[in-house]
């Protein structure tokens, strides 16, 4: 999608962090922006800057009303950013509360599918549009105590790759955003979602505005993956090496190992 000016973007998790940074970057390029978030207080703080909608992305029935409100304000949605998410509980999988696992999948993976199901058919019918799904570096290589987080993000990465194959013939692009540590209020958002006391301070990492600029470039260039942390290349390469090495263990036609 070369032209962002005049497009309508719908961003979940858009009232703070990476989502808000993307919203501001798109607005600066002349897009109309609808911000959706479950946090009403943060939405209220954005009053006047964006069209703001309260939305729990895991509530599939609520998406229809969100689309109606967005389209009434700015017309059909051209850019969908499935950005809403929560942080990991940092517990080993064998000890994890099943409710924590289910909550992660419902918000990050199923919630993103709900957004695709709501807006992608219209993009396909119009023959134009772009979807950005926010995953994580945790989608690209395994990290201990990030089990539910990595599972949801890796699932979203594959969902995005399949969606890209399916929508490309219709002129619709799909990118998966995989940032590393970014300075946001994700710890507070995650604590509220889980009903825990909110911690102090923000996460360490790069500025969310830097991530947003990468997203703008990814939309314009129709990149399949949008990455932000080059120092993670070796970790991703090691995982790819392990995977490809498994093919060497397949017996050849004589029954011997290759």
Question: Gist?
Answer:
This protein is an alpha/beta fold. The chain has eight helices and nine strands. The protein has a single domain, classed as NAD(P)-binding Rossmann-like Domain (Rossmann fold, 3-Layer(aba) Sandwich).
| Element string (H = helix, E = strand) | EHEHEHEHEHEEHEHEH
Strand content: 15-25%
The CATH superfamily name is NAD(P)-binding Rossmann-like Domain
Please give the CATH class: Alpha Beta
Structural class: alpha/beta
Q: Compute the separation of the termini in Å.
A: 45 Å
Q: Would you identify the regions where 5 or more consecutive residues have pLDDT less than 50?
A: none
Main β-sheet, in a few words? 7 strands, parallel
Q: Can you give the mean pLDDT?
A: 93
User: How do the strands line up in the largest sheet?
Assistant: 3-2-1-4-5-6-9
Number of DSSP-assigned strands: 9
Helix content percent band: 40-55%
Number of domains: 1
């Amino acid at each position: 999608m070369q032209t962002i000016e005049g497009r309508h973007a719908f961003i979940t998790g858009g009232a703070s962090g990476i989502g808000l940074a993307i919203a501001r970057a798109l607005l600066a390029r002349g897009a109309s922006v609808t911000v959706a978030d479950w946090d009403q207080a943060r939405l209220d703080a954005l009053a006047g800057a964006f069209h703001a909608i309260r939305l729990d992305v895991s509530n599939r029935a609520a998406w229809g009303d969100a689309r109606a409100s967005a389209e009434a304000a700015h017309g059909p949605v051209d850019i969908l950013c499935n950005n809403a998410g929560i942080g990991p509980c940092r517990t080993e999988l064998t000890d994890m509360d099943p409710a924590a696992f289910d909550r992660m999948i419902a918000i990050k993976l199923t919630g993103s599918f709900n957004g695709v199901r709501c807006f992608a058919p219209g993009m396909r019918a119009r023959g134009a549009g772009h979807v950005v799904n926010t995953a994580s570096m945790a989608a690209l290589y395994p990290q201990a105590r990030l089990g539910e987080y990595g599972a949801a993000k890796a699932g979203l990465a594959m969902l995005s790759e399949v969606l890209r194959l399916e929508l490309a013939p219709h002129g619709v692009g799909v990118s998966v955003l995989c940032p590393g540590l970014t300075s946001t209020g994700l710890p507070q958002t995650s604590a509220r979602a889980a009903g825990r006391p909110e911690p102090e301070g923000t996460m360490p990492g790069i500025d969310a505005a830097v991530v947003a600029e990468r997203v703008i470039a990814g939309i314009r260039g129709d990149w399949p993956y949008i990455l932000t942390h080059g120092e993670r290349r070796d970790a991703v390469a090691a995982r790819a090496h392990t995977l490809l090495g498994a093919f060497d263990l397949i017996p050849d036609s004589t029954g011997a190992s290759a």
